């Protein structure tokens, strides 16, 4: 039986601006099931990043409703929303957003630290994950001593280490060369296929679109198409 991880109902985000308001997201309604590997594509200005920020509770909608699992996040206080983000949502940003003074292991374990997980357990879980995604032996290096691809893998580790219901990845391959981007996608596919991690990407990258099990296309803030692509493990929705 499928389990709905995220659901939106008539989602709008309007920014006040002269001479007229900007409708960045217009009436988006969608559902994502546990274990999906979904890409959200569209031209610049189509609303991809805004939708991710809304789903992640980083910004609030002008109107509409969002559920993460059973929780309607649009009804939560800022404090409740921060707690839900910590417990249920992982983020992978285009710019990596690693803390330069922390080691790779310390960056990756940060979510677990905030949750109060004991150090021994944190370190064990990070080392196991690093071995899985090709970072074994790099635990003590700081971001400045890692390649771009290695930094992004640490960012992915940080996003998934707490076993969130949903990982939101905003253009995760944009700053990587072709080979490194392909290797990162293989890591995320493996986490999806073997660990059941649910991913939603915003992307311009044809490689991400090709590998996605489902492709949502946005135009001018609205869903133009939402199609299952028949890739192994995918649960898509033809619309």
Strand content: 25-35%
Intertermini distance: 21 Å
Radius of gyration: 18 Å
Main β-sheet, spatial strand arrangement: 6-7-8-3-9-10
What is the CATH domain class?
Alpha Beta
Coarse morphology: globular
Kindly report the name of the CATH homologous superfamily.
P-loop containing nucleotide triphosphate hydrolases
Poorly predicted runs of 5 or more residues: 232-239
- The sequence of SSEs as H and E is EEEHEEHEHHHHEHEHEE
Mean pLDDT comes to: 90
How much helical structure, as a percent, in the residues?
25-40%
CATH topology: Rossmann fold
Kindly describe this structure.
With 239 residues, the chain is α/β, with parallel strands linked by helices. Helix 6 (148-160) packs parallel to helix 7 (178-195). Strand 9 (214-219) and strand 10 form a beta hairpin. Helices cover 34% and strands 27% of the residues. The protein has helices spanning 48-55, 78-88, 104-108, 110-115, 119-133, 148-160, 178-195, 206-211; strands spanning 4-15, 22-33, 37-41, 63-68, 71-72, 89-92, 166-170, 199-203, 214-219, 222-228. The protein is globular. The chain contains eight helices and ten strands. Strands 6-7-8-3-9-10 form a six-stranded mixed beta sheet. A four-stranded antiparallel beta sheet has the order 2-1-4-5, with helices on one face. The protein has a single domain, classed as Rossmann fold, CATH 3.40.50. The longest helix is centred in the C-terminal third of the chain and has 18 residues, at 178-195. The chain starts with a strand and ends in an 11-residue tail after the last strand.
């Amino acid at each position: 039986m499928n389990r709905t991880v995220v659901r939106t109902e008539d989602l709008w985000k309007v920014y006040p601006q002269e001479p007229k308001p900007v409708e960045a997201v217009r009436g988006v309604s969608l559902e994502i099931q546990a274990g999906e590997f979904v890409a959200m594509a569209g031209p610049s200005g189509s609303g991809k990043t805004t939708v991710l920020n809304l789903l992640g509770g980083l910004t609030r909608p002008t109107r509409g409703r969002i559920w993460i699992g059973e929780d309607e996040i649009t009804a939560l206080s800022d404090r409740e929303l921060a707690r839900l983000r910590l417990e249920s949502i992982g983020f992978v940003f285009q710019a990596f957003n690693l803390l330069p003074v922390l080691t790779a292991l310390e960056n990756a374990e940060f979510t677990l630290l905030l949750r109060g997980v004991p150090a021994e357990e944190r370190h064990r879980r990070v080392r196991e994950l690093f071995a899985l995604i090709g970072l074994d032996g790099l635990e003590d290096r700081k971001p400045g001593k890692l390649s771009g691809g290695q930094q992004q893998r640490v960012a992915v580790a940080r996003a998934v280490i707490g076993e969130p219901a949903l990982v939101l990845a905003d253009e995760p391959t944009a700053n990587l060369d072709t080979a490194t981007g392909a290797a990162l996608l293989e890591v995320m596919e493996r986490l999806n296929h073997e660990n059941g991690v649910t991913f939603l990407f915003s992307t311009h990258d044809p490689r991400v679109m090709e590998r996605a099990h489902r492709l949502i296309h946005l135009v001018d803030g609205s869903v133009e198409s939402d199609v299952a692509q028949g890739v192994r493990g995918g649960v898509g929705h033809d619309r």
